[in-house]
Amino acid sequence: MSSRVLLPLVLVIAAATAGVGVAAREVYQRPPVVPGDQIAVPGTGTDESVPRSAQPGSGVVQLSVDASLHPEGQRVHEVLQRLFDSINNRDYELWTKAVTAERVATLSRQKWLDDYRTSADGSILVHRIEVVGPTRLRVLMTLTSTQDLADAPADLQSDCIEWRVVYPLELERGAWRVDLGTEGRSSQSEAC
């Protein structure tokens, strides 16, 4: 081919490629639609402390702006809401739909009911969602739990605990589920 034909052809291909790239970027960078009541915006009162008498606070899982813009933000919100609803309502069957099969296998219904018999979780805020691999996420969050003093962790005897946790999520049968993993072992906590 002559350079007269080749140069315009290369320019047309380059322009078409750039156009497709810009269009793809727009499609893949569109934030998911997350209901406004699920987003915690700094300065709106959702990030302020809940009075001790009202602990643990609302059981509605909220996402930071950063987490709400993550492509998996809505799906992460749904599984975490299911998880905390199961705990707050003592619903083992619902819990089994929020966690991996491996995690269900490690905790019988009776043990789960005993472990969560007085627990209530609230003030739940997902700060960040990180991709670990094609089927694994890491979710950084804070929450408050209340429980009878007798049911408090051995290393923090308090009826109200503020947690900073990392939950591993695994893609299982097409849905995100809370998994077992070393991420959860690095939890930090303090009395309310």
Structural class: alpha/beta
Radius of gyration computed on alpha carbons: 22 Å
Low-confidence stretches: 30-34, 42-47
Count the E strands.
7
Average pLDDT metric: 83
Main sheet: strands, sense, barrel: 7 strands, mixed
What is the N-to-C order of secondary-structure elements (H for helix, E for strand)? HEEHHHHHEEEEE
Mass-distribution shape: elongated
Distance between the termini: 76 Å
Continuous helix count: 6
Tell me the strand percentage band: 25-35%
Helix content: 25-40%
List the helices and strands and how they pair.
Blueprint: H1 3-29, E1 39-40, E2 62-64, H2 65-69, H3 73-88, H4 92-96, H5 101-105, H6 109-115, E3 120-133, E4 136-146, E5 160-172, E6 175-178, E7 188-191
Parallel strand pairs: 1-2, 2-3
Antiparallel strand pairs: 3-4, 4-5, 5-6, 5-7
Describe this structure in words.
With 192 residues, the protein is of the alpha/beta class. The longest helix is centred in the N-terminal third of the chain and has 27 residues. About 6% of the residues have low confidence.
